[in-house]
Design a protein that fits this description.
- With about 140 residues, this protein is α+β, with helices and mostly antiparallel strands.
- The longest helix is centred in the N-terminal third of the chain and has 35 residues.
- The relative contact order is 0.14.
Length: about 140
């Protein structure tokens, strides 16, 4: 925490972003090949159903390009949260291994869950409470 901003770092967040990007690229390539197959079949047969499948697979490719951009590329610089965006914070322990977790409820009904493997969550939650954020258990 620096000033009014919370900087988030960790391998799991980076892993999820890379996973989204890789899956989006793979699905985009797959559906691009399917769209190419439907286009070639349409050129040979002039069947309207092949044209419909071409449009559907093209829309699916556009969807996966959008997912790859928004989840893999656009979010890569968003590892900070301004304190004014936080509506409330909830402290809890994960039952399986007692890892402290803090869920931040942000504006626009978004949530960010932070795990603390090396830090004490009480200090972080107290820091948020000191800045005027409602902290619940």
């Amino acid at each position: 925490m620096e000033g009014d901003r919370i900087f988030i770092s960790g391998d799991q967040a980076r892993y999820v972003k890379v996973l989204h990007l890789i899956s989006a690229v793979c699905w985009s390539v797959f559906f691009s090949l399917q769209a190419q197959k439907h286009y070639k079949t349409f050129l040979l047969t002039r069947d309207v159903t092949q044209l419909v499948f071409l449009v559907i697979t093209t829309l699916i490719v556009a969807f996966w390009v959008y997912v790859g951009y928004t989840r893999g590329i656009l979010d890569s610089g968003r590892d900070e949260i301004h304190v004014k965006q936080i509506v409330k914070a909830q402290k809890k322990l994960r039952a399986s291994d007692d890892v402290p977790m803090v869920t931040l409820f942000l504006n626009n009904n978004r949530r960010r869950t932070l795990e603390f493997n090396d830090l004490d969550d009480l200090h972080f939650a107290d820091s948020l409470a000191g800045r005027g954020v409602l902290v619940v258990d």
